[in-house]
Known about the structure:
Blueprint: H1 3-15, H2 18-25, H3 29-43, E1 48-51, E2 54-57, H4 59-85, E3 92-97, H5 106-113, E4 118-123, H6 126-135, E5 140-143, E6 152-167, E7 177-179, E8 187-191, H7 196-207, E9 213-218, H8 220-228, E10 234-237, H9 238-241, E11 251-258, E12 262-270, H10 277-293
Organism: Clostridium scatologenes
Keywords: DNA-binding, Transcription, Transcription regulation
Family: Belongs to the LysR transcriptional regulatory family.
Amino acid sequence: MELLQLKYFQVAAKIQNFSQAAEKLNISQPSLSMTISHLEDELNVKLFDRKGRNVELNKVGLAFLDRVNRVFCELESAKNEIMDITGKQSNHISLVTTNPRLLSGVLKRYLMLHSNVVINQRCEIYKTAERQLQSGEIDFCLTVPAIEGANIECKILKEDEVVLVVPNSHRFSGRQSIRLNEVAEDPFITLVHNYSFRAITDSICQSAGFSPKIAFEVDDILMEEMLELERGIALLPLYLIKRPHLGTRNLSMLKIEEPDTHISIGLSWLKSKYLSQSSRCFRDYLIENYNNYLL
């Protein structure tokens, strides 16, 4: 069993299409198929279920992928540790977040203080972020809710809560708080399903005993516009709406008495992955300073 075989398998497992995986690896599709076939012969098992042009990992393949990810994670950790020992520290940091606004203020300040650091930041849905963290592809995840697990270190950076936002013309706009089931019949403005926060708000509504009557499925920018036009009400976290510019938008914010709407913003990293000095510095900065920047 060779590392090249494992790398080909890892890429194919991620993309779940041999043609696209071969293109990414810059090899021919028959070469990739042959390599995967030899690997399966060596293991005496099938790792993929073929579904037309696509492939899907079976139960055995999923278990094998977990081990392969650990192998490459250990190799990357060894490389980073050697670079630290020899004084050739990497200044690259990889970070995935479920919402870029989670980095508002704090990322700018960190880069101002550490101009030599190169941060590769992406925005992904929660499940993708968790998978990339588990595989060792990235150094950190900054998510809501926090990613936790037996092999994951997690630091809660901020406790937050979801509130109800209504136009000032709404019948409940003069109140300070509300039980969510009181607005079960109101039209809701929600984020589309590929926003991780959508799953949180759907769960909150279910806990209140109803499914929201959705008037608009939008992104976070269009949501503000629809709220201004009084087209519905919305569930939003405080970290998104406690901004100075929102004071002029004729909106009211109501604390939710029930159900519980508290959420946690967490920074997560793999226990087994060696973090470079730059990565450790970034982690410590976020832990110590996060609340100074996010409202």
